[in-house]
Write a structure and sequence with these properties.
Blueprint: H1 7-29, H2 32-54, H3 60-88, H4 99-102, H5 105-115, H6 117-120, E1 124-130, E2 137-142, H7 144-168, H8 173-197, H9 210-227, H10 235-243, E3 248-253, E4 258-261, H11 281-284, H12 289-296, E5 301-309, E6 312-324, E7 330-339, H13 341-390, H14 396-428, E8 435-439, H15 440-457, E9 461-465, E10 471-475, H16 476-493, E11 499-507, E12 510-517, H17 524-531, H18 549-560, E13 564-570, E14 574-582
Parallel strand pairs: 9-11
Antiparallel strand pairs: 1-2, 3-4, 3-7, 5-6, 6-7, 8-10, 11-12, 12-14, 13-14
Catalytic activity: ATP + protein L-histidine = ADP + protein N-phospho-L-histidine
Enzyme class: transferase
Protein name: histidine kinase
Length: 587
């Protein structure tokens, strides 16, 4: 193999060698996605180097042999370019692992045809030696596969370029600069090759200027990579950082169009399919005016917004951060989305617990007041009465006349003590619930008998209806306390010479018991307090005292026995207390 050196060959040999070394260095220096730009440069350097060697040859056989070496780089470069574009833009091939390997099927097929061209002449129909120029060059007649190879090269170049443009058309200034350099770097050699293929520009017959253009372009690109750290900020790494963030990120430019986002932001939007590059903010948040207002604000602000999603209502904190570049002018807005539902609920729960603790503390203070006043007063009064009778200051006949009043006071004290003991048990150590088969008729009749004497002193008649064969599943002691309090309250607020009706009826799988009086009734304000579990006291028709504790225990005990209570009342007309308890069924 003889060598006839000339300026054209030397230019390619020297420049290709330099860029080839530079490309290998870049390939080792950079990682993963960006490394494929080095592989593209290596491919074109191989093409240029062996084309330079071809220009030093004088025989057709040597030229054809070197052509086969050139085609290693020529067919691999377009595939490497597409591979770089996919990896650089962060293409996820986890669900389609065949994509990357398939890029090299067509180059391998074309190269196989080039190697075996002497058997079928599909690539070159014929060859001859051109001697009209300053040095011998290879003349070729193009075959059908030659045009297929040209179309493949152009298609893969435009495909990779489109991937880059599509990904970064709305990106920030840094990514746009990188993308433009990459696209323009390949566009110049492409134009030169079009001129060569159409015979518009040839200094000499048979001389292809495309390798010169590629070597020049990628030499400049290599310098830019090393000197200016071009491509050091890789979108792939940036995507990984954004995707591991639990906060949603949405970046808008000065026209309120999306220029960047992460996948996490889609879970904060009612219409996630609207979030895409170039989409206007008014389209994404058409039903969220508070976010649009935040987007148009030029100040850093934080708002809270509520959305109803598949998992219920969510509370979202949205922070707007203005993006300023080159002075005070606004170039965009960064929106950060964070789900604070759990945090808000924890705060609300803590607030509710604090309120409940305050209510319990107030209730405790009230109970101490009850013990010191409502309990201490009657007991000390009886003690003083007995003392005065023993000393003769009060005659015995007068003492006997006072006994009915003392008895009534002791009845109230008895109910008070029982309620206090029950409440203390529930608050301090809790009750031991013993659900069992209970005869409602016996329970209600027993409490009616206990309180009938107090009722008769007010000429209040207690009637019972519908309690034949009524069995429930509940705790006996709790049921006794519930009906004792309800009947006692009914007596307390009944007018003299009136009645109390206690009825029972079956509704579904429950018994509904109604305790109805025809007394003073309950005001709307006090009804609200009862429903909210707020303790209060009201004196009865004959100035009977109370603690407000009874209704709290009634509601609590009913809830523990799978029951419920509903109250209806009108001032001056009386009250109805409706209780539901589950019917007992034999197992």
């Amino acid at each position: 193999m003889e060598f006839l050196f000339n300026p054209y060959a030397l230019t390619l040999l020297v420049s290709s060698t330099m860029v080839l070394g530079l490309s290998f260095y870049i390939g080792f220096k950079l990682e993963d996605s960006v490394r494929w730009i080095a592989f593209t440069m290596i491919s074109f350097s191989l093409w240029g180097f062996f084309y330079g060697v071809e220009l030093t040859q004088t025989s057709i056989d040597s030229m054809l042999f070197l052509t086969k070496l050139q085609y290693i780089g020529l067919v691999m470069a377009p595939a490497c370019w597409v591979m770089f574009s996919l990896k650089y833009t962060g293409y996820d091939n986890s669900s389609s692992k065949w994509v990357y390997p398939s890029l090299f099927i067509f180059p391998i097929l074309i190269y196989s045809i080039v190697l075996t061209n002497s058997f079928h002449h599909l690539h070159y129909k014929s060859n001859w030696l051109i001697t009209s120029g300053p040095f011998p060059m290879l003349g070729i007649e193009k075959g059908p596969m030659y045009m297929v190879q040209v179309i493949y090269s152009y298609f893969f170049y435009f495909w990779g370029t489109y991937i880059l443009w599509r990904r970064f058309q709305f990106a920030n200034k840094h990514y746009k600069l990188q993308t433009r350099l990459l696209i323009l770097g390949g566009f110049f050699p492409l134009i030169i090759n079009v001129f060569y293929q159409t015979s518009w520009f040839k200094p000499y017959e048979g001389l292809d200027m495309t390798p010169y253009a590629f070597i020049f372009t990628y030499f400049l690109l290599g310098i830019a990579i090393l000197r200016f750290n071009l491509l050091n900020l890789k979108p792939f790494a940036r995507d990984k950082i954004l995707e591991v963030m639990s906060r949603g990120v949405l970046v808008f430019d000065h026209r309120d169009k999306v220029v960047d986002f992460n996948l996490a932001v889609k879970k904060f939007c009612l219409h996630p399919e609207k979030i895409k590059m170039g989409q206007h903010g008014e389209v994404i948040f058409t039903d969220r005016p508070e976010i649009l207002t935040l987007l148009k604000s030029s100040e850093q602000k934080i708002i809270e917004s509520r959305i109803n999603g598949a998992n219920g209502e969510a509370i979202i904190k949205i922070e707007a951060i203005p993006i300023l570049e080159g002075g005070p002018f606004l170039s965009g807005v960064l929106l950060l989305f964070d789900d604070i539902t759990a945090e808000i609920k924890i705060n609300e729960r803590l607030q509710n617990q604090a309120t409940e603790l305050q209510q319990l503390n107030n209730l405790k203070d009230k109970f101490f007041s009850i013990i010191s006043h409502d309990l201490k007063g009657p007991v000390f009064g009886v003690k003083e009465l007995i003392h005065l009778t023993q000393t003769g200051l009060i005659p015995k006949d007068e003492f006997y006349n006072m006994l009915p009043e003392v008895s009534r006071n002791m009845e109230q004290v008895s109910i008070l003590l029982e309620n206090l003991l029950a409440w203390t048990s529930s608050q301090l150590k809790g009750e031991y619930l013993q659900p069992q088969k209970i005869d409602l008729n016996r329970i209600v009749t027993g409490q009616k008998s206990l309180l009938e004497r107090i009722a008769s002193e007010k000429s209040v008649h207690i009637e019972m209806h519908g309690f034949e064969n009524t069995w429930v599943k509940a705790d006996k002691n709790m049921m006794e306390l519930i009906f004792r309090n309800l009947i006692s309250n009914a007596i307390k607020f009944s007018r003299s010479n009136s009645k109390i009706e206690i009825t029972c009826e079956e509704i579904g799988q429950d018994y509904q018991i109604c305790v109805r009086d025809f007394g003073a009734g309950i005001s709307p304000e006090n009804l609200t307090k009862i429903r909210e579990g707020i303790s209060f006291t009201t004196r009865g028709q004959n100035n009977e005292t109370g603690t407000g504790l009874g209704m709290l225990l009634v509601k609590e005990y009913l809830a523990k026995n799978n029951g419920s209570i509903r109250i209806e009342s009108n001032l001056g007309e009386g009250s109805q207390f409706y209780i539901k308890l589950p019917i007992w069924y034999a197992d």
